[in-house]
Structures are given as C-alpha cells and as structure tokens.
Design a protein that fits this description.
2 copies of one chain form a homodimer. Chain A has 257 residues and is α+β, with helices and mostly antiparallel strands. Chain A has 5 helices and 10 strands, in the order βαββαβββαβββααβ. In chain A, strands 1, 2, 3, 4, 5, 6, 7, 8, 9 and 10 form a 10-stranded mixed sheet that branches.
Chain lengths: 257, 257
C-alpha cells in the first residue's frame, strides 16, 4: 500500500456514461471526461491537474465500457490503492475498472492495435425508458440481409473519407476495418459492432446512420451499390446522417500483449 | 382508427425511468409522472388535463416497468392509435407499453391482486456507470444464506408497521407478502423481489435496507432473530435505513383476468 513516492506511468481502464459530458476531450466551459479525470488525479497529488492521454476521443454523449488512458503519476499509492482512491473521488458516471503500472514508453492511443465500437438499437415498439440515454430507439423495419451484405463490403483497408466529416483533420484517412457486424440479441436489442486499427471523426456514427438508411430501404433500393459508391468515391455527400451519439460505446481497446 | 368520440375507460401500462421525476404523485412545483401523463392526455382532448389513477405511487427516483393506470377518455382514437399518440407526445423517460379499453368499473389500484417490486444491486467492484441511476452500488460481502433465511421469515400475512415510516397514513397495516426472493443473476447483478397484495409507504425500501444490514453482518449477528423481532414488535426503530429509491422498480401488477 505505501511505496516510496516514485514517478511512474500508469494505465487506467475506464467506463463512463457519456450523457452528461461534453465528450472526452478537455475544453473550456464544458464538463468533459478528460477534465474530470485530470482534476481528480491532480487532487491525489496536491496539484491542479495531471495530464492524461486516451486511446479514443469519444464524442459528446457517447459512452465507454473499455476506454484506456495513460498518465504519469508521482505517488506512494500502489496500483490497487490508486484504483480505490479514484473510485472514491470520481463521480458515479466515470468508473475506474483497473489501474496498472506500465512501461514508461506506453502510449494509450499510439500503442492501440485496434478499437471496437458498438452501437445499440432499441427495437421495442414504444421505446424502453431505461435505454433512452444508451440506445437509438429504432422500431422501424430493417432488412438484415441487406445490412449484412453492406457490412461485408466495408471490411478491409480503405480510405474512409466518405464516412467522416469536416471536423476530421487527419490527412491519411486509410484505416483497416477488421470486423463489422450486426447482431440481434433479442426481439428488442440489436447492436452494430466495428473493430478497426483506427476510426476517423464521426466514422462509427456515420456508418450506422448510413446503414440504417440502407437497411430501411431494403434490397430493391440497391443499398450495397450505394455503400460501394461511397467507399469508391470517398464522398461524404452520398452517405447518410450521423446516428446520434447516445447509442455509441467504445467497447474495447486491444494492445500487443 | 376513427371511432365516434365516445366516453370510455382505458387502462394504460407504463414504464418510466423515475430518476428525473419527483415520484408518481401530482404535486405543485415538481415534475411528477402523474402530472406529465395527465397533461399529455389532456392535450389529446384539448383540455388542461385528464385525471388518472395508478396501481402504485412510486417514490421520487424509483422506476416502473409495469405501472398500470386507468383514466376516462373521450376521443375518436381507438386503443392502438391512442397508444401511438401517447408514445409521440410523452417524453422519452415515460413510455406507454399498451392501451386497452376496460370496463367502466375498473380501478387500477383497488382491482390489483398483487404488485411485484424489484430492487437491483450492482455488485461490481468499481460500480457500473450505466447503472448509477438504476441500482444501488453494493460491492460488500453479503451472507446469502442469512438473507434467504430472513426472506422466508417475511412471507405471510402480517402487520408491516416495522417496515413503514411516519409518512404512512393508512390504519390497517396488514398486508400479505406472498413472495420474497434474492437472486444473483451474475457475479455483478443481484435483485431482491417482493410480491404482495399491497405495500405500505417505503416498505420495499425499508425491507431492502434492513436486509442489507443483516446480510452484511452475517449469521453470527443473529439477523433472522432481528427480522423476527421487528415483525413481532412492529417497531420501526429496530429496522435499518431505507435503501435509496434508485434501485427500486415497480415490475408488475397482477389483476384477476
């Protein structure tokens, strides 16, 4: 429990309900996950804040079950005691799942091999009030055969410019989407899942928004051809609107070991 | 879809997330489920509001998956169209599950044969941020053998004065508790369930609060004897504190047919 106070790098696995946050990234005048976490780590050091780096910068209203961040700390608390202290100090909508000491070189974003985002649909007729923060209520018919045909087309290493937006500032927009699924767990619960070595701004939400349009139109509307065209022309204007953030969860980040 | 506008009594089955409500019952200056529902029904009639009666008056912060209410309406809309209209007009945290025309004599509270309340515990070490509105985070050890012994003692027709509080205004405090269970659905998800022909004010929450104390103390502390004493003496001061409302759900109301 009490070690000599030494500088070390830690990895923190986090879950959060993003509803009441203005997203991950620090900003002036909004409650963000990064700001709350940095201030809380700062309190353990008698400082204003400690800088953290996240694997994925989730949007305002989007959630995480497996966000990974790293930070340099200088404390006598061992990993278990640090996790316990964070659990006590953080609000109920951010929960530390694990704290572990990592190599000084560890970088939560750059070292990530892949990330998995999931998107939940509430398929109940009236909408489940317990899911209004965590799913898109979508009771309309969906052609799952068309959806799965489109999902298969998406998998691969491609330029995703057609599924990002003007907020995306990176130049190289090629990413490798290694898995894309649509699973119906019950008559009312359905999930999209996407695993890639990286995601562009709004990419997951634009994929879901477009897939819902295509799935609602059905096979006759040529949805698969539309998806192929968006990918080929890398043209955002051909895609559907972004699905609302509330259905989106950063589920898992995978690393080398 | 369009019938002649006729006076009729309807039953509405409702689910709601109680977090952002000051409970079921109408009050001045607070957002209550009853007020929101009455105003919404009123909008369908071009009136200020329509009076509704509920099977159970849930506390502020408590939820419902199967609340039942009745009301007299005067509209051309048939049951399906009325359900659809309510679904459009009600906020996302109140959802109409079904609307059906019932006999004029139907009374949601008086005709109820039994109600089932459930109470959710989040047993995860750090607390699940997606459950902070819907469960009590209770990671501490519980002696489930003692819990089940106590639950078995509770079942029966008894005076529940020991498990209500000063807000309870009814004189006859005998109720028949027909089932009391504790189920661990996974390593992190556990539920108390109580079915009775009626519940006194705070009864379910006081039962849970007391059972958690008894379960945490373990067999050596004589928890079963304490429960027996509270029942026998009908003495509220012997019971534990009320568990927080957020874990409580009105799950089901049973009627004769």
């Amino acid at each position: 429990m009490t070690l000599a106070a030494a500088r070390r790098r830690i990895r923190i696995d986090l879950a959060y309900d993003g509803t009441d946050f203005h997203g991950w990234q620090s900003q002036l005048g909004g409650r963000t996950v990064q700001d709350v976490l940095e201030r809380t780590l700062g309190r353990l050091h008698g400082r204003a804040s400690i800088t953290v780096r996240a694997a994925g910068r989730t949007d305002a209203g989007a959630h995480a079950r497996g966000q990974v961040v790293d930070a340099v700390v200088h404390t006598r608390l061992d990993d278990g005691a640090l996790a316990h202290a964070l659990g006590r100090l953080l609000p109920a909508d951010i929960r530390p799942l694990a704290v572990r000491t990592v190599a000084e070189a560890f970088h939560a974003r750059r070292d990530a091999l892949s990330k998995t985002y999931r998107y939940r649909l509430d398929r109940s007729p009236a909408g489940d009030p317990f899911l209004s923060r965590y799913a898109l209520h979508y009771p309309h018919a969906l052609d799952t055969a068309v959806l799965r045909e489109c999902l298969a087309l998406l998998v691969g290493r491609r330029d995703w410019s057609g599924f990002t937006d003007s907020a995306c500032t990176v130049r190289d927009r090629r990413r490798h989407l290694v898995a894309a699924r649509f699973d119906e767990l019950s008559a009312t619960e359905a999930w999209f899942s996407f695993t890639a070595d990286g995601f562009l701004t709004r990419m997951a939400r634009n994929l879901v928004g477009t897939l819902l349009e295509v799935g609602a139109e059905g096979a006759a509307a040529g949805g698969a051809a539309r998806i192929a065209r968006i990918l080929e022309r890398a043209d955002r204007t051909l895609a559907g609107p972004a699905a609302p953030a509330r259905g989106l969860v950063l589920e898992h980040v995978a690393y080398g070991d």
